[in-house]
Design a protein that fits this description.
It contains 15 helices and 15 strands. The protein is of the alpha/beta class. Strand 11 (512-513) and strand 12 form a beta hairpin. Bound molecules: 1-deoxynojirimycin (NOJ). 1-deoxynojirimycin binds at residues 76, 79, 116, 187, 223-224, 288, 348-349.
Length: 569
C-alpha cells in the first residue's frame, strides 16, 4: 500500500486533514504532571502545555499523546481515573483543555488522549456505589467482586499477583461494617478492574470516546488494551496452573489466559472502531498490549484499534542483528494487517533509553535487572556500571535510525534533550506504586517522570515557579532546553533537524536493506533515495556515496564513527 505516497508533497493543511496522517506520524508523549507548570504548584498542568505549543511546533512532531489528565488521586500517576469525562482540577479545567486542543491544532499538531478502560480508580462514583451496595447488586456488577475462600471468606479468591506486586485481590468492608467480598485489581488496589461483560460499562466508554472526539481529540492511546475482557469462571486456576498452561515462548499465544489477551476483547474494539469512523478524519487508536508477538496484529487491525505498540526495540540491546530482525519482522507484520508499524524507545514506564544504553549489555528491557535480580538503578545500585556518555551517544544513534524507518515514531518528553533516568530519588519522595508494593525489588518508574528542565537555572529549572513534584538533580541543568536551543550538535537540534527532514522525505512505507558486509553496520534506503546508515560497532567505517543530511554525532574525516547514525541522499 502506498497510502502515504503523496504525503511529502502535501501542504501542511492537507497533511492535517489526511485520514492516514497517523501512519508515519511522529508522536510526542507528554506526561502532563511533569511537562510544564503554569501556576507554580509543582505539578505540570494543561495551561503549561498550551504555553509550550511553540516549542512542540519547533520539534516538527505530528501529534501529542497526553498521558492521563483526568481527576485522580495519583495512586498510579493518573492511571487511576476518578472521572473519565473531566480534567483533573489540579491540572486545569475543560475550558483549558479546549484551549490547549485549539492551540495544538492551530500549530498543525494532532491530539491523542490516553484512555484507561481496564480499571477506574477506587474514588470513581461507580466504585463508591459498589462499596455502598450489597453483594450481587448491579453496582457491584460493574466491577469484579468475588467471595473469598476459607470458612469466613478470609482468603482471596485466587493466588494471583497484581502487576505492581502483592495480591491482585483486595477485601472490602461491607456497608454493615463486616469484612466482606474481594475485588480484583490487576494493578494497584486503588485501581479496581471494571467488568467488561457488563453492557453499561461498554456503553459508557463509547460515550467517553465521543465526548473527547467531539472536543477535538484526534486519537486514543488505549491503556492495557489486552486486559479488559476476562473469563473468571470458577474454579480459578492457580498461578502454578496458569504457568503450566502457558505454552507460548513469550506469554500465552492462544487467548486462553483468564484475563490477558482474550479473543473476546476484540469485540469491544470493533464497537470502538464504529465510533472512530463516525468522525472525519476517523479517530485513531493505538493499543498498549504486551502480548505475544503473533497476537499483536489483532489489535492493530483496521477493524479494531488500527495500531498497536510494538515494544521490541525498546527491549532490545543496542545490537545491529537484533535491530534488523525486529525491524524486518515488524514491517512485515504491519504490512500483513494493513496497519503501519510503531516504534518506541522510551515512555513513562521504562528506564530512559539514554540510560539503558549506558548499562552493560543484557540489562536491557523494561526494568533492567542486575545479576542479583535487583534493578541496576536501585538506589545506591552499581552506578559505576553506567556509562552516561556512551548511553547518550547510542540513544541518539538509535533514535535517528528509528526516525528513518517506516511507521509511527513515539517519542517521550525529555528524550529530545538526551535526558538520563534520575536514579537518585530518595525513598521518601518516590510516588510509584510499583516501588511501594514491591519494595527492594522494583525501583519503580519515577526516574523517567521527573519534571523537565527548561532553563539552566532557577526554580525547578524553569518547570514552574514553585518547585517540582519529583526532585530534579543538579545535573538536569546541562540538559535544559535553553542550553541546547539553537546549539549545533545538541541532542535537541538533532531531533528538530531529523523530525523536519523526516516529514519532508517520507513517502511510501517501504524500506530496502543494503548489504554492508559488516555485521555491525545497518544500511537501508527509503523511496526517493533517502538512506540511513548506523554503525553499531566502535570503529569508524566508510559511508556510501551521497550527501549527509544529518548525523547523530560528528563524522570523523568523512567516515561514520562507532555508535553513530547518518542519513544521506
Ligand atoms: C500502563 C501504563 O502505561 C502504566 O503507567 C500504568 O501503571 C498501567 N498501565 C496501569 O494503568
Amino acid at each position: 500500500m502506498s497510502t502515504t505516497a503523496t504525503l511529502a508533497t502535501l501542504s501542511d493543511d492537507h497533511r492535517f486533514a489526511d485520514p492516514n496522517w497517523w501512519r508515519q506520524a511522529s508522536v510526542y508523549q507528554i506526561y502532563p504532571r511533569s511537562f510544564s507548570d503554569s501556576n507554580g504548584d509543582g505539578l505540570g498542568d494543561i495551561k503549561g502545555i498550551t504555553a509550550k505549543v511553540p516549542y512542540l511546533q519547533s520539534l516538527a512532531i505530528d501529534a501529542v499523546w497526553l498521558s492521563p489528565f483526568y481527576p485522580s488521586a495519583l495512586a498510579d500517576g493518573g492511571y487511576d481515573v476518578d472521572d473519565y469525562r473531566d480534567v483533573d482540577p489540579k491540572l486545569g479545567t475543560l475550558d483549558d483543555f479546549d484551549e490547549m486542543a485549539a492551540a495544538l491544532h492551530a500549530a498543525g499538531i494532532k491530539l491523542i488522549a490516553d484512555i484507561v478502560p481496564n480499571h477506574s480508580s477506587d474514588r470513581h462514583e461507580w466504585f463508591r456505589e459498589a462499596l455502598a451496595s450489597p453483594k450481587g447488586s448491579p453496582a457491584r456488577d460493574r466491577y469484579i467482586f468475588r467471595d473469598g475462600k476459607g470458612p469466613n471468606g478470609e482468603f482471596p479468591p485466587s493466588d494471583w499477583d497484581s502487576v505492581f506486586g502483592g495480591s491482585a485481590w483486595e477485601r472490602i468492608t461491607e456497608p454493615d461494617g463486616t469484612p466482606g467480598q474481594w475485588y480484583m485489581h490487576i494493578f494497584a488496589k486503588e485501581q479496581p478492574d471494571l467488568n467488561w461483560a457488563n453492557r453499561e460499562i461498554r456503553d459508557d466508554f463509547l460515550k467517553t470516546l465521543r465526548f473527547w472526539s467531539d472536543r477535538g481529540v484526534d486519537g486514543f492511546r488505549v491503556d492495557v488494551a489486552h486486559a479488559l475482557v476476562k473469563d473468571l469462571t470458577e474454579p480459578l486456576l492457580s498461578k502454578l496452573e496458569l504457568s503450566a498452561a502457558n505454552t507460548g515462548t513469550d506469554g500465552f499465544d492462544d487467548g486462553s489466559h483468564p484475563f490477558w489477551d482474550r479473543d473476546e476483547v476484540h469485540e469491544v474494539y470493533a464497537e470502538w472502531r464504529e465510533v472512530f469512523n463516525e468522525y472525519n478524519p476517523p479517530r485513531t487508536a493505538v493499543a498498549e498490549a504486551w502480548v505475544h508477538a503473533t497476537r499483536r496484529p489483532r489489535y492493530a487491525s483496521p477493524q479494531g484499534l488500527g495500531q498497536a505498540f510494538n515494544f521490541d526495540l525498546l527491549q532490545a540491546d543496542f545490537d545491529a542483528e537484533e535491530f534488523k530482525e525486529i525491524i524486518t519482522r515488524n514491517l512485515a507484520e504491519a504490512a500483513a494487517t494493513g496497519a503501519s508499524s510503531t516504534w518506541v524507545f522510551s515512555n513513562h514506564d521504562v528506564v530512559r533509553h539514554a540510560t539503558r544504553y549506558g548499562l552493560p549489555k543484557g540489562s536491557k528491557g523494561k526494568h533492567p535487572k542486575g545479576q542479583d535480580g535487583k534493578t541496576w538503578l536501585l538506589a545506591g545500585g552499581p552506578k559505576e556500571e553506567l556509562d552516561v556518555e556512551l548511553g547518550e551517544r547510542r540513544a541518539r544513534a538509535a533514535t535517528l535510525l528509528m526516525l528513518a524507518v517506516p511507521g509511527s515514531a513515539y517519542l517521550y518528553q525529555g528524550e529530545e534533550l538526551g535526558l538520563q533516568e534520575v536514579a537518585e530519588i530518595p525513598e521518601s519522595e518516590r510516588q510509584d506504586p510499583s516501588f511501594f508494593r514491591n519494595r527492594g525489588v522494583e525501583v519503580g518508574r519515577d526516574g523517567c517522570r521527573v519534571p523537565l528542565p527548561w532553563a539552566a537555572e532557577g526554580s525547578s529549572f524553569g518547570f514552574g515557579d514553585g518547585g517540582a513534584h519529583l526532585p530534579q538533580p543538579a545535573w538536569f541543568s546541562k540538559y535544559a532546553v535553553e542550553v541546547q536551543d539553537g546549539v549545533e550538535g545538541s541532542t535537541l537540534e538533532m531531533y528538530r533537524t531529523a523530525l523536519k527532514l523526516r516529514r519532508e522525505l517520507q513517502t511510501a512505507e517501504e524500506l530496502e536493506w543494503i548489504e554492508t558486509g559488516n555485521p555491525e553496520v545497518l544500511h537501508f534506503s527509503r523511496p526517493g533515495g533517502w538512506q540511513s546508515v548506523t554503525n553499531f560497532g566502535e570503529t569508524a567505517v566508510d559511508l556510501p556515496a551521497g550527501t549527509v543530511l544529518v548525523s547523530s554525532a560528528p563524522l570523523e574525516d568523512g567516515r561514520l564513527p562507532g555508535n553513530t547514525t547518518a542519513w544521506l541522499r
